[in-house]
Amino acid sequence: MASSIGRRFASRTARQLRFYSTASPGVRSLGVVGAGQMGLGIALVAAQKANVPVTLVDASQAALDKGISFAEKLLAKDVSKQRITQDQADSARSLLRPTTSISELGGVDFVIEAIPEIPHLKFKIFGDLAQICPPHAILATNTSSISITKIAAATTKDPKDMSASSRVVSTHFMNPVPVQKGVEIISGLQTSKQTLDTAVEFCKQMGKIPSVSADAPGFLANRILMPYINEAVICLETGVGDRDAIDAIMKNGTNVPMGPLQLADFIGLDTCLAIMKVLHTETGDSKYRPSVLLGKMVDAGWLGKKSGKGFYDY
Ligand code: NAD
């Protein structure tokens, strides 16, 4: 008798598992919040590679206009270099839908936030996304350094209610998104396995190579990269070498495509400073102290390529 109940239970569980796996919605539409250098790249690659419609939200109409015109330039360049056909470019462009209204994310299956690296802004957006997006939607962040557990906690006032926090994960794309293959996938304490698996699968659909890492300050990529950049700025600040010597020795001596100071300009000096501050405060370890010069350059508004001036002029 017991074994027949056991068999019935086992077969019902197997049926349910089959039902859940086929009913589990694939990612048929994407929302991206923030149309800056990362958000725009993520939206474009999702349209091109995963072939999904992308609702691209930014608080600024000017940022959306600039982003869409940049996407059109990138697509035209791909056509002129015969990497894609005109039809493929037109199809990718038609999948991008820019808007200033976050409430238009009410129908998406997956959303990726790429607004500035400012904790209270991210926490507010995730509280909003939990209300606006459908109950099955994955809520991903592109944060470079903010704890995924903290971002997930911001989705609810009741920590026992994990209906939204279990759907929060990080998909940390690398810059420039159309070029860099790697993406870091990070779970918070609340993230469910299904959320993690969906994020890994969707990043693969976008043609990326995911690496899974833990929710620790800086995760993997920035834990290693940012102290390297910060040390290069300290070398400049203390006169160990000038800008060109620092970049040249690393470029020519370690076969990287650009030196650390130029790379910092490309990433954005404000982003580099914000990440160093997180590493420093979260670990309490003085080895992560941000360079004074880096802080001064951010105070001056010299943020690198995006502001036209950093260690180099653009
Ligand atoms: P960015 O400054 O280029 O773009 C941010 C965009 O967000 C801007 O267009 C801004 O108008 C918009 N925005 C600001 N507040 C908003 C809001 N409340 N709602 C909607 N839009 C809003 O920044 P970025 O370099 O693209 O970085 C975005 C995120 O990606 C950050 O968390 C950053 O740490 C991370 N990241 C950056 C890099 C990099 O190399 N730049 C690499 C990996 C991850």
Automatic annotation (TrEMBL):
Q: Where are the transmembrane segments?
A: none
Pathway the protein contributes to: Lipid metabolism; fatty acid beta-oxidation
Record domain 3-hydroxyacyl-CoA dehydrogenase C-terminal: where: 218-314
Set out the biological process GO terms recorded for this chain's protein. fatty acid metabolic process
Q: Which residues bind NAD(+)?
A: G34, A35, G36, Q37, M38, G39, D58, E117, K122, S144, N175, K306
User: A Gene Ontology MF term for this entry?
Assistant: oxidoreductase activity, acting on the CH-OH group of donors, NAD or NADP as acceptor
Report what the protein is called.
3-hydroxyacyl-CoA dehydrogenase
Which organism does this record belong to? Zalerion maritima
